[in-house]
Each structure stands twice: as C-alpha cells, then as structure tokens.
Amino acid sequence: MIQSILDGILTGAIISLGAIGLTLIMHMLRFANFAYSELLAIGAYAALVFDRLFSALVPVLDEAFAPLTLTGALALSMVIAMVLTGLSAVVIDWLVFRRIRQKADPLSMVFASFGVALIIRNVIVLIFGHHAQLYSQEIARATILSFDPLILIKPDQVFVLVLALVLMLALHLVLTRTTFGFALRAVAENPALAQVAGVRLTTVIAAVWIIAGSLSAAAGTLYALTNQLNPMIGPVFLLPVFAATIVGGIGSVYGAVLGGFIVGIASGLALLVLPSGYAPAMPFLIILAVLLVRPQGLFGEDQR
User: Fold this and answer.
1) How far, in Å, CA of 127 to CA of 104, rounded?
2) Does the first or last residue of the chain, that is N or C, have fewer Cβ atoms within 10 Å of its Cβ?
3) pTM for the structure as a whole
C-alpha cells in the first residue's frame, strides 16, 4: 500500500503540472479544451528530438548525472521543449481557437478541440510511428527503502517530484508577486473591467497559453523520463488532467495541484483492488463523485 501511495504521489505531481495549465485556460477562455493533453505529447517528443540532436553534436552532454538517467542533453532539451510547446500552444490558439472565439460560442471551441487533438496525435504518429521510445537505454536502479513492506524508489522519481514542485512554486511566485500575475487574475475574473484598467487581453491570453504549454511539456518530458514515450500519452493523461481540474475547482491553481495529487494517489491505490485494465477508469469515477457531491470543486466558487 505504501508503495502504491508513493507511486501515486509521483504520478500526481505530473498530473498537477498538466492540470494547472488546463484550469487557467478553462477559467480564462471558458471552454473545455480536449486537445490540451496533446501538448504533453508535443513537449515530450520535442525533448526527444533535441536530446538526440545534442547527444550527436555534443557527446559530452550525453553523460548522465549519476545516479539519475537524466543527461545534460535531455535537461537542455526539456527547457527548449517547454519554450517550443508554449509557442505551439499560442500558434494553435491563433490558427483555430481565436477565430472560433470571435465568431462562435464556447461549445464550438469544444468541438474544434477534438479535431485539433486528432490532428496533433496523427501528425506525431506519422513522424515518429506507433512504437514506444525511451530517452535513455540505461537501467534505472531502484533504492530499497524498506524490506517489510518492500518499498522501492528510483532516483529519477525523486528528481521528477522535486522538479515538479519547484515549477509549481515558481508559478506561485509569478502569480502572487508580479504585475503580470495580478493582470492575469484580473482578466480571469472580469475581462471587460481588466481591459478598462489598461490590461491587454490578447497579451494575457497568449501568456496563459505559453504557461500552459510550458508546464505541459515539462509534465510530458518528466513522465517519459520514468516511463516509455508513445503517441498515446495525450489520451492517457486526458481524463486524469480533467479530473484534477474538476476536483480542485476550475480556475484554482492550488486546487489543480491538490486535485492532481488526489487523482494520482487514488489511481495508485485503485491498483490494489482493481485489475490493471480497470485502473484508468478511476479518474472518471472521481469526476462523477465530485460533480455529484461538490460540483464547484474543492476550491471553486459556488455559481448558484
């Protein structure tokens, strides 16, 4: 059970990173973006491409930071992938969602997001194929924390958790200590009033997409660091990310973080009582439970 909780915390940290961006977009643009989880795949595969490139051009970067399997090439590639994925999110919004936002209602944007998700997924399959890939061929050795019960943890898992928490803390400081953070929250609460106060709505929306894309790229890369990378990473994280957003309350960054850990731990514990094939249904059950008991989520405001 303790092992399942630890694994759930790791998964929850990755889900939380993804849920933060989704909750910002849903609160800011008022639509459920079902293409959002594909940004994780874009980031993970962008990191893969640059990792291979840097490893070939600068062999010294291909050395791992022991005891991690993370290399200098992959660390640098993740930063570049975060930037590129953030810019990709802005481009997708400019090409698709912005045009629909100006001419149609939010429901049309939801339908469009399904199409965008299919396009991104199939482009990735076309370029990289269906087969799974690994960032590193090195075997990640686990450290035994306890024999009774048996508890194992890998250095990569500790790194993933620490880096995810650092990124969350950095975003917290941006939102609470900077002028941009105040502007973003103002636009989320009342776009018209924020514009009257001098906030450029288009700039804030672009910034939100960049933040969401960057965090998604980090989540996708960190997931692939401790698991196999395949084109279905988007669909795998679609329900967990939405579940975390709904559990925490749409628009609440801190709720998204807590919701991500709740979903991750619940999914980990579900493996103790359910066959592995049924475990992916846990986020869906969590969504149903929250909608029945507290539709606004843990930190959301009651709209009635």
Assistant:
1) 33
2) C
3) 0.89
Cα(285)–Cα(281) distance, rounded to whole angstroms? Answer: 6
| 56 three-state secondary structure | helix
**Phi, psi for residue 200 in degrees, rounded to 5:** -80, 110
Q: What is the dihedral sign for C-alpha 149, 155, 161, 165?
A: positive
Q: Are 40 and 79 in contact (CB under 8 A)?
A: no
Strands annotated E in the chain: 143-147, 150-153
CA distances from 255 to 16, 229, 245, 259, 300 (A): 9, 28, 7, 6, 8
Instruction: Find how far residue 1's CA is from the centre of its chain.
Output: 26
Query: pLDDT (tens digit, 0 to 9) for every residue of the chain, 304 residues total?
Result: 777 788 888 888 999 998 998 988 888 888 888 999 999 999 999 999 999 999 888 888 888 787 788 888 999 999 999 999 999 999 999 999 988 888 888 788 889 999 999 999 999 999 998 888 888 777 666 666 666 666 777 888 888 889 989 998 998 888 888 888 888 888 877 777 878 877 888 888 899 999 999 999 999 999 988 888 888 898 888 989 998 998 888 878 888 899 889 888 888 887 777 776 777 778 888 888 888 888 887 776 654 4
Count the helices and strands in the chain (H runs, E runs): 12, 2
Q: Is there a contact between 224 and 40 (Cβ–Cβ < 8 Å)?
A: no
Q: Which of 283, 298, 214, 209 is nearest to 242 (CA)?
A: 283
CA 226, CA 23: separation in Å to the nearest integer? 25
Helix, strand, coil shares of the chain, percent, nearest 5, are 75, 5, 20
